[in-house]
């Protein structure tokens, strides 16, 4: 199994252990995602991002200027497979899309409105520091993580 598959499997196990029901993996083209029902009745769609070291990799194609949707039912779960136990960061889709947008705009500002090497590239890295506030935030999806609710 590759890193993406290992990460998705770890997220599947974690979701089930936290009370998710009707958990299924679906594919759209070459992308897969997890659908499940939370105990509170909320249906969620989860995209996973996995890493063993360094930063998570994605694309600026996901960037969008938007505000956090507190009722979001789509999430990205970042999993750090290089830590034992594995560490999970749960971000609402609206939040991560805006974060990618803001980080990319800041990057372009630092480089005179261009990428440092290749303006055609859409590569984008996400560090733990950017998503640290979402560590183990399973409650965002209506799942119990045993931690107090987020403010």
Question: In words, what does this structure look like?
Answer:
The chain has 151 residues and is α+β, with helices and mostly antiparallel strands. Helix content is 25%, strand content 30%. The protein starts with a helix and ends in a 20-residue tail after the last helix.
Cα shape:
globular
The number of helical segments is 3
Looking at how many chains there are and whether they match, the oligomeric state comes to single chain
Query: Strand order across the biggest sheet?
Result: 1-2-3-5-6
Low-confidence stretches: 147-151
Question: Which percent bin holds the helix content?
Answer: 10-25%
SSE string, helix = H, strand = E? HEEEEEEHEH
Q: How would you state the average pLDDT, rounded? A: 87
The helix/strand class is alpha+beta
Proportion of strand residues: 25-35%
Record the SSE blueprint:
Elements: H1 3-17, E1 21-28, E2 31-37, E3 43-51, E4 56-59, E5 74-80, E6 87-92, H2 93-110, E7 123-126, H3 128-131
Parallel strand pairs: 3-5
Antiparallel strand pairs: 1-2, 2-3, 4-7, 5-6
What's the short version?
The protein has 151 residues and is an alpha+beta fold.
Main features:
single chain, 151 residues, alpha+beta, 5-stranded mixed β-sheet, two-stranded antiparallel ribbon, 7 strands, 30% strand
């Amino acid at each position: 199994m590759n890193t993406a598959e290992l990460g998705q499997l770890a997220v599947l196990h974690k979701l089930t252990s936290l009370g998710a029901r009707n958990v299924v993996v679906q594919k759209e083209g070459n992308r897969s995602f997890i659908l499940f029902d939370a105990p509170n009745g909320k249906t969620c769609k989860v995209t996973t991002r996995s890493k063993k070291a360094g930063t998570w990799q994605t694309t600026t194609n996901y960037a969008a200027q938007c505000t956090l949707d507190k009722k979001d039912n789509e999430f990205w779960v970042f999993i750090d497979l290089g830590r034992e136990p594995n560490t999970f960061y749960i971000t609402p889709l609206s939040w991560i899309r805006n974060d990618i947008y803001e980080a990319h705009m800041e990057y372009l500002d630092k480089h005179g409105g261009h990428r440092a090497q290749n303006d055609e590239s859409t590569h984008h890295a996400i560090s733990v520091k950017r998503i640290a506030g979402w560590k183990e935030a399973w409650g965002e999806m209506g799942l119990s993580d045993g931690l107090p609710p987020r403010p």
